[in-house]
Design a protein that fits this description.
This protein is an alpha+beta fold. It folds into 2 domains: 220 residues, Endonuclease III, domain 1; 113 residues, Nucleoside Triphosphate Pyrophosphohydrolase, CATH 3.90.79. It contains 15 helices and 8 strands. Strands 1, 2, 3, 4, 5, 6, 7 and 8 form an 8-stranded mixed sheet that branches. Helix 1 crosses helix 10, helix 8 crosses helix 11 and helix 9 packs across helix 11. The longest helix has 18 residues.
Length: 351
């Protein structure tokens, strides 16, 4: 059975039901206690590809250290990266600081309230601009993140890959029609869609019995909830292996800063290199390091997008003048590290 054409009556029924549900069930999140566009901006950037429970302590620490847009714009890059340390996808925060600096320069330090001007800021796309303009300024602009896509695709039976251009256009149209129903409560409506996707209309085991709009849901009516949203298959997982070297000189350890243009640019790390599946770790760094022991002191496993990475860590002696900086553990604690190398640092601190 094909999904029915969207009926205005359905839209008009959905909105008041969502608003009523949100008023009674919204989580008390720190960024919901303010309409300061700067705070909304920071929360939205942090929440991209990151769970709410992870973001909460980061957001609270951030707002304590950099409470205003001006503070963020003029903050040293290493402080910004340290506050972001562990959230990953560091281009987000670099773009966010560039946006803050542009606002100070072009808008006199006032966060722009026009959708077109928000979209001009570095790192901000249609979703983030819509979230800021609707939540901070209560403007009737639609939003479309993973949670909203799931809710809308189930409600209205959006068949096919939700990333296809035609389906993206259809989903944006639905989100826009919903937010235009009640322009007095734009902020609450958009947040209710996200909240419903997070708390009720979950990817697996959705709580359809608790959904305020279950009676209007195409997927539930057709007993096809698990089929929506329809997405393309994920790319194949690839295994990668790295060797890291912990070189010590008295109470100093050798570390280096990643150059601009690379993943995790400007973060710190222990010297390391990628090795093939058949490479021997003690051969891989022979030109620069001499292993003290052929047994790794620890192993770190982590993932970046579709890559599953094994990082084996060895004690070693530097055999020459190797680029980098020698620092104490206390100095290392103050530096922003890439996540995997932060785990190496924690291991060294525990020894």
């Amino acid at each position: 059975m094909h999904a029915p054409e969207l009926k205005p009556r359905s839209i008009n029924q959905i909105v008041p039901a969502l608003l009523k549900w949100f008023a009674a069930n919204a989580r008390d999140l720190p960024w919901r206690r303010t309409t300061d566009p700067y705070a909304v901006f920071i929360s939205e950037i942090m929440l991209q590809q990151t769970q709410v429970k992870t973001v909460i302590p980061y957001f609270e620490r951030w707002m304590k250290e950099l409470p205003t847009l001006a503070d963020f714009a003029k903050a040293r890059q290493q402080k910004v990266l340290k506050l972001w340390e562990g959230l990953g996808y560091y281009s987000r925060v670099r773009n966010a600081q560039a946006a803050a600096q542009l606002i100070m320069l072009k808008h006199g330090g006032q966060f722009p309230d026009k959708m077109a001007e928000i979209l001009e800021l570095p790192g901000i796309g249609r979703y983030t601009a819509g979230a800021i303009s609707s939540i901070a300024f209560n403007q009737p602009n639609p939003i479309l993140d993973g949670n909203v896509i799931r809710v809308l695709s189930r409600l209205f039976g959006i068949a096919g890959n939700t990333r296809d251009k035609s389906n993206q256009a259809k989903l944006w149209r639905l989100a826009e029609e919903l937010v235009l129903v009640d322009t007095v409560h734009c902020s609450e409506l958009n947040q209710s869609l996200m909240e419903l996707g997070a708390l009720v209309c979950a990817p697996r085991q959705p709580k359809c019995g608790e959904c305020p709009v279950s009676g209007l849901c195409f997927a539930l009516k057709e007993n096809r909830v698990a089929e929506f949203p329809m997405v393309a298959p994920r790319p194949n997982v690839m295994q990668r292996r790295f060797t890291a070297f912990v070189a010590r000189k008295d109470n100093l350890f050798l570390v280096r800063q990643r150059p601009a243009g690379l993943v995790n640019a400007h973060l710190w790390e222990f010297p390391n290199l990628e090795v093939g599946e058949k490479s021997r770790s003690d051969d891989a760094g022979a030109n620069q390091f001499r292993l003290i022991d052929s047994v790794p002191i620890c192993r770190v496993r982590h993932s970046i997008t579709r890559y599953r990475i094994l990082l084996e860590v060895f004690l070693a002696e530097a055999t020459g003048d190797i680029p980098g900086d020698w620092k104490t553990l206390a100095q290392l604690e103050r530096l922003p590290f890439a996540s995997a190398h932060k785990k190496i640092l924690k291991f060294l601190q525990s020894r």
